[in-house]
Amino acid sequence: MKLVIITGLSGAGKSQAMKSMEDLGFYCVDNLPPALIPKFAELCVHTQGEIEKIALVIDIRGGRFFDDLFESLSVLKHQGYDYEILFLEASDPVLIKRYKETRRMHPLSPRGRIIEGINEERNKLSELKKNAKYIVDTSNLTAAQLKEEIKKIYMDGGISQNITIFIQSFGFKKGILLDADLVFDVRFLPNPHYIEELRPFTGNDKQVRDYVMKWPESIQFVEKLKDLIDFLIPYYIKEGKSQLVIGIGCTGGKHRSVTIANILYETLKEKGHRVIINHRDSVIVRE
């Protein structure tokens, strides 16, 4: 029997994660009082194989019952039931924005400031996070991308490196990325914008990619970039980061940055990393 405890910060996407688990054949229960977990696991075992995959959403909505969680997990282990924890989190600005958009109150600060509730919740969940097998930061994830992450973990067998890498191309003239951990400026590369027949296309098109990558400096830069990212990722994982945001910028964000971002995405994907790509400024309307 596979038992997954879904937990994490309020507003981080636990409900969406549960829906994704249901799609993968998990029997899901939301907000089960933690004291009932061992008994519930026992009941599922007695179904003689009818229920083999279980996902339980447990969080601070349980109020005083939430304090029973660690004792219940200890009992679960003692009874011989294995479990793993999936922890969802997001940055403070993103969580605040989500609360304001839905006009919900934070469970730990119904009459106070949202950030106060978030800070208190982070403290209460810190020990759970330390014991989590998978940590997913949903700050930059759409609902569809979160579903894909859940699928990668629980249908494709999971990924040992517990970090999600976001690659985002952008144009400096429209503003630098505010949430990037690493930003690489590729404006030194030859610019397809000045080639009239290439201007209407983007780095997603073969002719632009071929042009950008035909130069020795482009090839050398990509190789050095790959080496640097390979060197850094293990240290970010060791530090405990659950997400790494890499920005690739050129002037307009349509040609060079898109090309280099795509190549880096393909390389990291081939190496088995959880990686998501987005091109912020590459939408072109062609007549």
Structural write-up:
Residues 1-154 form the RapZ-like N-terminal domain. Residues 164-281 form the RapZ C-terminal domain. This is RNase adapter RapZ. With 287 residues, the protein is α/β, with parallel strands linked by helices. The chain has 2 domains: 2-154, P-loop containing nucleotide triphosphate hydrolases (Rossmann fold, 3-Layer(aba) Sandwich), CATH 3.40.50; 164-279, no CATH class. The chain is built from 9 helices and 9 strands. Strands 2-3-1-4-5 form a 5-stranded parallel beta sheet, with helices on both faces. The protein has a 4-stranded parallel beta sheet with strand order 7-8-6-9, with helices on both faces. The mean pLDDT is 88.
